[in-house]
Sequence to fold (261 residues):
Amino acid sequence: MLRLKDLAVAPERCEAERLERVEGKIMDVSLMSHDERLFINGLVRLLRPKKVLEVGVADGGGTCVLLNAVDDDAVVHSVDIGSTAGARAFELFGAEARWRRHFGADVSEVIEEIGGGIDFMVLDTVHVHPAETLSFIAVFPFLAPDAVVVLHDVNEWGLSSYEYWQCCATQLLLDSVTADKFTLSEFLNGCRHPNIAAFQVNHDTRKYIADVFRSLFLPWGYDAPWSCTVPERVLRALVLSLLPNPCVELLRRVRRRLRGQ
Ligand SMILES: C[S@@+](CC[C@H](N)C(=O)[O-])C[C@H]1O[C@@H](n2cnc3c(N)ncnc32)[C@H](O)[C@@H]1O
Fold:
């Protein structure tokens, strides 16, 4: 896949007209701004991923952006713990075989069924730490070596009212992961903080994955519900293949935390 850092064009300016095919049909349900939808649309058009994973669907506004942007031979897997997610995507793309739905489940429960080689992912769930980090840990062994991960609501706590101060999970993941990082270009030279960002996995992401685990020792915004467990098999595969021995203790502590001990 293309390296994002080599791109000459800002993602949100790439094939913006393609988004127009769905824009008017999703504006009422989409939980993203027009610029954010353009950012995802442009990234997909530039990178042409073949296996896309969307975690967090709600009414399916983002799903429609993805299904509209991908090539005909790509597959989009959508995961949501809600069993009735994706209503608008059903209306617009329900008949399409390239849309695979995994509703009523946490991503960690279905990731083995989805399988490896995921080259593009949009992660947009509850934003309370460590939700997105646990999802990323579960998915990481299944990502292609140069996969691109989009994080939405990285500035949720900054844009919203005070009660949303806990919504720092996507920013925390963005900061703890080692990767090439990107955002809307209009923000790059300004002081405004964007609400969407992407990172592209590289060989250092595996090397420094322990930093992502370490972020699990920051305060959690909630007790771990069933929906944010990570199957032991997935954790063990990750630890054995990626982490040096001292991290096994880290894993033990994470497991205790997941069990609420
Ligand atoms: C912010 S909304 C997603 C918005 C959507 N990406 C869009 O662009 O319109 C968050 C969604 O994440 C789902 N969710 C929460 N925790 C989840 C989890 N652990 N795994 C999958 N989905 C989750 C919720 O049910 C909700 O539908």
